[in-house]
Every structure is written in structure tokens, then in C-alpha cells.
From TrEMBL:
Listed Polar residues bias regions: 1-11
Organism, scientific name: Capsicum annuum (Capsicum pepper)
Residue ranges of every copy of the GIR1-like zinc ribbon domain listed in the record: 29-62
Region described as Disordered: spans on this chain: 1-22
Protein name: GIR1-like zinc ribbon domain-containing protein
InterPro entries assigned to the protein according to its UniProt record, in alphabetical order: GIR1-2/SIED1, Zn-ribbon_GIR1
Amino acid sequence: MERSSPASSCVSREPSPDEEFSKKSAMPMMLVGCPGCLMYVIISEENLKCPKCKSTVLLDFFKEERIKNSKA
């Protein structure tokens, strides 16, 4: 007996690899250091939290370079 979910089911579909790649590649990323974990992490500019300890106190290593590039 085969079961299928109705169209109104709350089960979501998995994104295709192309959809997932294009969504992730559109997000600006930045390299930061977490003084709490003593780790370097690459995070999205939209979610400025350490993935390990969830701290929002992060050290931005390339901030001056981004400022110089935006003035040019």
C-alpha cells in the first residue's frame, strides 16, 4: 500500500542543489574572529553570531579593506 502526502501537507520539499547553491552564493560572507571561542569563522553578514557560542562580539579582520574599497 503506497501512501502519499496531500497537497496541503505541512511537509516541505528539499531544495534542488541549483536552488541551494544560488541562494548561498548570493549572501555576502565575512571572516571574523570570536574572542570567546578563540576561533576564526566565515559567517554571513546577515547573521553576525559565532556559530559555536552564539556571541555577537566578533573581530572583523578586513573591515579597513572594505572601507578603502568602498571609497575608491
